[in-house]
C-alpha cells in the first residue's frame, strides 16, 4: 500500500503543491521548508513549535484525549483556579457553579510564566521516586546477602561448639538449623514481597518518565500543560504508594542473630537448645520525596496568601538562665520536633526545648554568629549583611528584611534584587522565613505583628497581631516538612501554629 505523502497546507491555498517537512502544533498545519522559514520570521508565529511531519501521528494521537474533558468528551475551554483543573462548559454547570475564579484556558496559559519550572517539577518528582525506589531495591538485595552471611556465621559458630559436646548436641544443633532456615525463608519471602511492590511502582513510574520525555520532544507547551494535570494525579498516586510502603514494617531491614544459651558450655545434661533465633528490624534509610503532591499550580502568588490559615498548637515560655533577662532573637525546629532558641541576652546561650516547653539542653556561650552543632562544635562562620540582621534561603534565592527602610527583599545568590516590597512605616521588619511555596513570613517587632508576602512580593496580609500575644516578635521560623510556623517574642514567649491552605 502506497504511503500518503503530506503536502504543505499553506502552499495549497496558493494552488501550489509542495511536500511538507514539518507540522506546526499551534496552527495544526503541515508546512514545507520554505513556509517554515517564513513561519519562524513572523511575529505571530515565530514561537510556534514545529515538529517533523513524521512525528505528527504520535502528536495527534494524544491531542484529542488531552484537549477533551474525560467526563463529557467536550473541548476543554476554561480553567478553574480554585480547583486547579481544566474544565468544559458542562463541567462548569455541574461542578463549578459557585467558583469565582474561572478563566479561559488560553488566557491562563498565556499568564503562566512558571510553566517550565512546573513541568520540570513533574520530571524531578518522577526522578525522585525512581532514585528512591532503586536505592531501597539495592538495600533489599544487600539485606538478602547479609542474611545469608549471618546465617552461615551462626551455623559455623554452632558447628565449632558441636565438637566439644556429645550426641545430644547434634539433636539440638539440627533443631536450631531448621529453625534458622525457616526464619530465613520467612524473612526472604517478606523481602521478596517488598521487592515485588517496589518493582511494580518503579515500572509505572518508568512508563510515566517515558511519557514525560516524549512530551518534551513532541508536544507544544500548551499540550504538555494540559497533559500535566493528568500526569500529576498519576505521580501523586505513586508517591502515596511509595510513602505508604516506607511506613510499612515490610520495608525494614532484617537481621538474624543468635543468643547463645548461657549453660551451653557448662551443663550438657540440661542443654535443650543452642539459643534463640532473634530477628531484629532496623528501619531502612527513609529517602524522603523532595516535592510530594506539588503538581502544576495556577493559583496566583498574590491570591495564595489569602488562603493561608493558622491554627494554634501551643505556647510556652523560655526558661530563664543565669540572668533573669531573656532576649530571644532566633528560633528553629529540628526534625524530631525539638525547638532551638537563641538567647542573645547576657546569658549568651542556645536553648533546646520540646514542644511541651521542657528544657533538654542549655549550651553554647560564644557570642559570635556561627553555624554550631548541638555539641558546641563550630561548623562554619557566616558573613553578616550590612543592613539586615536576618536572612533565609529557599530555591537558590535569599530573602531578608531591613528595619531601617521597612522593606522586604528577594535576591539572587549573587545579590541581584528580584523584588522589593514595603511594610508600613515603623513596622521594623526583622525576622524572616519562607514556606515551601515561596511565601515570605516576616516578624515586625515594633508593630507587634507577623506579615506574609506572596512569592512575587506584590501583595501582603497580616497573619498575627498583639491580640494573638505578640510583643516585640523577632524570631520566626517555618518548618516546611511539618507546615508549622514558630514565632517568639524577645521576652521568650513562643507560639506554634499549624499552617493550612
From TrEMBL:
Residue stretches spanning the membrane: none
Coiled-coil regions listed: 119-150
Record-linked CDD domains: Bbox1 (cd19757), Bbox2_TRIM25_C-IV (cd19776)
Alphabetical UniProt keywords: Coiled coil, Metal-binding, Zinc, Zinc-finger
SUPFAM superfamilies: B-box zinc-binding domain, NHL repeat
GO MF entries: zinc ion binding
B box-type domain segment(s): 10-53
Protein name listed in UniProt: B box-type domain-containing protein
